[in-house]
Amino acid sequence: MKRLAFFIAWRYLFSKKSHNAINIVSGISAAGVCVGAAALVCVLSVLNGFNALVEQMFSAFDPDLKITAVEGKSFRTGTEVFGKIKNHPNVACFSETIEENALVRFTDKQVPATIKGVDSVFTQLTQIDSIITSGKFTVYDGAFERCVAGVGLAHKLGLNAFFIDPVKIYAPKRSGQISLLRPERSFNESSLFIAGLFSVQQIQYDDEYMLVSLGLARALFDYEPDQVTAVELKLKNPADITRTQKELREILGGNYNVYDRYEQQEDFFRIMKVEKWMTFLILAFILLIAVFNIIGSLSMLIIDKQKDIEILRDLGADHTLIKNIFLLEGWLISGCGAVIGIVAGVILCLLQQTFGFLRLGSNYVIEAYPVQVQAGDVLLILCTVLLLGFLAAWYPTRYIQKNKQNN
Residue 141's Cα: distance from chain center in Å? Predict the structure, then answer.
């Protein structure tokens, strides 16, 4: 019976109606669904592209995994537990870092900044060399302490690579009393030379961070030789990050946090996810309006096919079969529109990905809009359209029930 209902509904979809307006309304309904589905595919793919672009930017600076203390800011790495972390089979690089706030001064300008002390394996841990815009990455050249600053911070201070004037960093001493007569004695001071500038294309890094050697950071902030604020890890197999993160948490216990790249920038990626879902809901609402055009076309079709309905009843068709015919008819209208729209949207995204027709301009990180089609989004769009199409088709089929009762 289901195959019979589908066969008749399929014939009704393409057969000529007695009133040409029914064909026009059905065509408009399918076209509306098609455009809405294509728009959903394109917009969600662009948002996925921007998300992947930002993730790539962060990956040049953020490690695969980052270990921090649950309580307090610093901890010691010279323990048996961290010895196990170093020897973990999936850990390729173990890097100790220190992050603290300090005052940075160059000539007559001074601004607060985040000072990050890094060790000799930091270049292996991250892709820092790929985001150097001026100079080179060097925090110690064997004779002088050097620093690498974010482009935004350098702009505030009037810095550029290889300036001969030193940069001065001031940090409050962690012990001792503050001298009101000689307040400068309450601060540790370090002088170093600028070696290069980096740009992550994210304000939180470019405008705030300055990289120095780990030894200088320990001396500046009064840290012990094995004391750090974070341990950053690079994995041999990043695809196995979830299992590795779980194993490291079991080794470290509840005193430490182990963050992956998403968790390190949790607020940022949460905002992007909320933006994507809000965009989906807005476009789905527009699609809902297009889908409910099916109510009009299906109601007109039911009226037009009253004689066919009576003939089917005379031939022994029950009410469920007749109702399913028109329910499938409405579903086919939305389904055909959804499939055509999704295919068209995917093709447009692939063309944009290959040729980059839509441009952002020369002042942006990339020239063309990034796109990334995800199978999950395509499946979600198809299911959404089919659900909305079913609801839109179900409403007018109630007329058949009323008509039967009246008879």
Answer: 38
Mean pLDDT for 168-192 is 79
Asked if residues 164 and 195 have their Cβ atoms less than 8 Å apart, the reply is: no
Residue range 359-406, pLDDT digits in tens = 887 667 788 899 999 999 999 999 998 888 888 877 777 666 544 444
**Which one of 229, 264, 299 terminates a domain?**
264
Nearest to 301 by CA among 281, 320, 322, 315: 322
Per-residue pLDDT at 402: 46
Q: 361: helix, coil or strand?
A: coil
CA–CA dist 64, 265 (Å, integer): 12
Three-class DSSP category at 138: coil
Determine the pLDDT at residue 407: 44
Q: Is the pTM of this model over 0.90?
A: no
Task: List own/partner pairs for 187-192 with CB under 8 A and 24 or more apart.
Answer: 188/219, 188/220, 188/221, 188/222, 190/145, 190/216, 190/219, 190/220, 191/145, 191/166, 191/167, 192/144, 192/145, 192/146, 192/147, 192/166, 192/167, 192/216
Which of 264, 297, 321 is the C-terminal boundary of a domain? Answer: 264
What type of residue sits at position 89? P
Distances (CA, A) of 175 to 43, 114, 171, 187, 336: 55, 20, 12, 10, 73
Domain that holds residue 401: 2-58+269-406
- pLDDT tens readout for residues 41-67: 999 999 999 999 888 888 889 999 999
Strand 209-213 versus strand 109-118 pairing type: parallel
d(CA 115, CA 13): 68
